Every structure is written in structure tokens, then in C-alpha cells.
Amino acid sequence: MGISSELMSSATTIGFFPLCESRRLYGLIVALQASYELFEGDAQAAGAFLRSPLRCFNSKAPLEMLITEEGASAVIDLIGQLEHGVLT
Q: Per residue in 28-85, pLDDT tens?
């Protein structure tokens, strides 16, 4: 996710993350929840999906895309399309 261990430690001490890292974590949480729902509660399948390189992301895994807000939106949109059977 691009969040250093030093920043994690600091956030634990002060009680919050800077805005940029908070957005990354939010994208991760939303993508995890959406993929979990897509695979009907199968955590292993959801995790495998998020770690698998996809052609639509130029052979990057969805988890790699979550580093940016645009990437997180693309992952969440893809999961929504898969869930509703609407692929473009």
C-alpha cells in the first residue's frame, strides 16, 4: 500500500494517518469488502482475485492499483461490473 512501517508506528502513537494514507486505507477496505461480496464470502477467492495480475490493469494485480485514488476507483468499478455482469 505504500505506507512505511515508520508511518504506521507514528499513526499508532498519534492516533491517525495523514490524509493521503487514509485515502489509501479506505480504498483498500472498500476493495476488500467488495471482492469479499463478489465471491460470496469466500475470503480465499477474494484474496486470490486481488493478488492476481489482470490484463485490464496492464498485468498489475488489483492490490497494486490501490496505491492511487484513480486505481482504487478502477478496482472498485471493475468489481461492480463483475458483480452485475456488465463488462466494457
A: 899 999 999 999 999 999 999 999 999 999 999 999 999 888 999 999 999 999 999 8
| Residue 28: domain span | 5-84
Number of compact structural domains in the chain: 1
Residue 69's φ and ψ, nearest 5 degrees, are -60, -40
Angle, in degrees to the nearest 10, between helices 19-38 and 69-84: 10
Q: Which residue type sits at 85?
A: G
Q: Write down the pTM of the prediction.
A: 0.78
CB neighbours of 77 closer than 8 A, spacing ≥ 6? none
Question: What is Dmax (Cα atoms) for the chain?
Answer: 45
* Distance (Å, whole) CA 18 – CA 60: 26
Closest C-alpha among 58, 28, 33 to residue 46:
33
Residue 35 corresponds to which cell in the numbers above?
A: 471482492
